[in-house]
Amino acid sequence: MDLFEFFQKQERQLREMPSEQVWQRLEALLEQRRKRRKRRNIRFLQIETILVVLMLLLIAAVLVWYFARREGL
Q1: Is 38's pLDDT higher than 80?
Q2: Shortest CA distance to 33 belongs to which of 25, 22, 47?
Q3: CA–CA separation, 12 vs 28, rounded Å?
């Protein structure tokens, strides 16, 4: 069998179309993944915001302590 005959016989497999049920499952799977990514981004932003606020509070506390100590309070 030469290469040309091999590709001719295998061509049918390349033209096979998945059933409608397969497409629906694939679309549902992709939709679930999109929703998960959105949730992760929101959670990440919430955690990031909390960390920034805590850092600002820590910096403010250190500055108040420093200036209070400097003034002798």
Answers
A1: no
A2: 25
A3: 28
